[in-house]
Amino acid sequence: MTYSDDVLGRARVGETAELKEYYERLAGQEAGALWTVANEIEPWYPQPRSVPVHWSYEALRPLVLESLDLVRADDAGRRVVMLVNPGRRDISAAVGMLYTGLQVMGPGESMTAHRHQAAALRFVVEGHGAWTVVDGQKLKVGPRDFAITPNWTWHEHGNEGTDAPVIWQDGLDIPLVNAHDAGFYEVHPDLYQEQGKVVNSSLLTHGAGELRPYGFEDGWTKPYSPLFAYPWEQAYPALLNAAKATDGSPYDGVILEYSNPLTGGSVMPTMGAHLQLLRAGEATQAHRHTGSVVYNVAKGSGHSVIAGQRFDWREGDIFCVPSWAWHEHANASSSEDAVLFSFNDFPVMRSLAFWREEAYPDNGGHQPTA
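Now predict its structure.
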């Protein structure tokens, strides 16, 4: 389809001296003429300012570790190297309305408790001994584990390991919250929370997957998952089992969504998360959708073609797909699988009836690359 603004129904008012003077008088009243901006603010299709970006973990890791000696955790609040999209530096976003960064905690370190309007999630990249306390629940997490910190829940983090730092990826909807002028932040009045007696209590209660608590959890009315930690030791075998029974998606391979065990929906109202498996030698077809995605390579190596650009990735790397950008993925290995963790703003797209998706129609579903 050819898109032209020189058609009936689109703004196509020419410039005249009389109109210019009129616009100046409107501006003097803090007003303006819609037709001067209508085609820009109502595009034919999404025009994201974000661009595809690939962040190399090999290049970033030394810089993340260097911050341990440069900045005290108590002074930084959270010692994080944020990943910023060149097109969204104005809002410190990684892509669209999503923020991400790499947080590092040294052995024995702990951070003070706080809460904020933004929802948050964590994906552990490396290190043992990481923990977080969410509304009094202590969670222990290890490499490739996924955990959530729903909005306005008290939370604090630490590393109880004795010999190595922990690095995990943070994901937050800070840009979305700020776009709605809804940001709040509080430091815990006691600096640290009183912790419950049972570690990983939400996992023990809700982590059986197909078995749902009966009776004593009927009172849960919060809009986010009561399960705060999703271990790799359960998630990866679930992918492998699904791969035995299905070919998966032609666009995403075998893909599973981390879900709220009580509703089957996304883990939080504003952000969802997936784990997807690319079989040995698998190359998916391209598609595009509304909503932005941040990926972390949990296992293996390969490449993705995003908006016609090829990005090669390996374990630990992070990359992003802007809204409405064509994208496809390929596993580089002919013998080993590859696994991608990702988080997104799909729950927002769907709840606002913004969701749209389509397949790449040409060349067997594969994009030409620059």
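The chain has a mean pLDDT of 96.
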